[in-house]
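Thread: Newbie trying to understand structure tokens

Hi all, I'm a second-year student working on a class project, and my supervisor (Dr. K.) asked me to get a predicted structure for one chain before our next meeting. I've only ever worked with sequences, so writing a 3D structure as a token string is new to me. If someone could post the tokens and maybe explain what I'm looking at, I'd be very grateful. Here's the chain:
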Amino acid sequence: MTSISRRTVLRAGTLSVAGTAVASAATAPSRPAAAAAGIFAHGVASGDPLADGILLWTRVTPRRDATPGSGKGPAVPVVWEMSTTKDFRRIAARGTSKTGAERDHTVKVDVRGLQPATTYWYRFRVGAERSPIGRTRTAPADGASVDLLRVGVVSCANLQAGWFSSYRHLAARGDLDLVLHLGDYLYEYAPGEYQARDVVVRPHDPPVEMTTLEHYRRRHAQYKQDTDLQALHAVAPFVVTWDDHESANDAWSGGAENHTEGVEGAWVDRKAAALQAYAEWMPVRYEVGGQLYRRLTFGSLASLSMLDLRSYRDQQASGTTDPAIGSADRSITGDAQMEWLLEGLSAQQAQWKLVGNPVMITPVRFPPALPAAATAGMEQLVGSTTVDGVPYNIDQWDGYTADQSRVLRHLGDNAIADTVFLTGDIHSGWACDLPADRATYPLTGASVGTELVCTSVTSDNLDDILRVPPRTASLSVEASFRTNNPHVKYLDFDSHGYSVMEVRPEGVRMDWYVLSERTDRAATARLSESWQVVAGTQKVTRA
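---
Reply by user tm_fold:
Sure, no problem. This is what the structure looks like when written as tokens:
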């Protein structure tokens, strides 16, 4: 990725995107399908908006055999343009970048020198063939007064489990400033794995669990050919982070639950392949060897701190009763990222401190006396044994309570107002207070912040695992969780869909939209719930 100023681009005309040398990848058991017609079969995208810049992305197929992960195809120059008008009569920036097989023919250009709070259109060209036109928007200037920031919020999109109708509905809105993707943008599993229902809507390519660079590149390419995802990328900039499935389930710094050392190669090699493909295929200011956690600002209204909770974490505890859960020697963030987060929360001048948080930080304890089937379903959903009083999910901050307590204590001790954690991962919708003290919260109601959790785009939730109709068996489970955790105000274990968040000086509002049926290509969406955080309260209330 090359950072390019508008002035330099317009003067120089031709610049090269820096590539990273890659190791040769093992050949997958079957060949990928031929690239879709056209050079720009994988669409266009933008991301990480700044007041003076935006990152542009595409992938080109210079000849038919230059399929993703193949290592084939020549280096080619790719022309890109940005305009303040859709007809491109007023060019704001223009340049040429080279790409080739060493970076899987992906193109990332970090354009600077743009105007704040401005809508731009962009496109790419190879020879006479032009890409689809994308629309993007820069962030407001630092300190500028901002009345509204509207954000689409999504996570957990398993292509095998359903259609990406959530992306289609978000793209059709036409009013989003950005899209926040909180992780599990794609999944590593072989066809038919990691889903409770029998229907495989679209089998994964390659038809194996991805473990090599070729595998990861091909899987990214398959997801990027989804027309609903392409449509959403083309209408708004994305701000992304990874969770575990971008590499392997329950990943930590030295391994993953879904990795067998030796049988599936070395974790260090598999992780390097996953990170390289992510750097190539995602519209994010990240390159191999850099750090993914970062902070964006939107005038005086909001900052957005994006966390990486996989790269630096210690291994998960062995179970829900493991005393290591509370050890101060274990971390989910790593020391450097924790200091960056706490210092940023204290120092931010923006009113709303938004935190892009891949896994839940709210302390949640498992309720007593659930039906056996529900308990088994919950254990499958969270991947650990669940008994009365133990942490709900030890892959979340609840499995690293020293770090969890440190963040919540920092918010309370420093009287930091208007902090909202925005979370995915758990395939369910939640709205929670962050209790200053979980034990005394039922009496005091004291909260130091809030957390809003979007549900999955398609990935299995409780009704899928139990194979029951939605909003049946889960209702009693949700009621038990809320009773045992009174700081949890809203909980939906069943629905698939997306959220839309509106940030205003007077408050933050999240709307949860649910799909009629994830396996229906024409699924409808309806507004299910709306919750808000009124400025200065540190509490969620029904909107």
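A couple of things are worth pointing out once you decode it. Residues 161 and 201 are 6 Å apart (CA to CA). The longest strand covers residues 525-534. Feel free to ask follow-ups in this thread.
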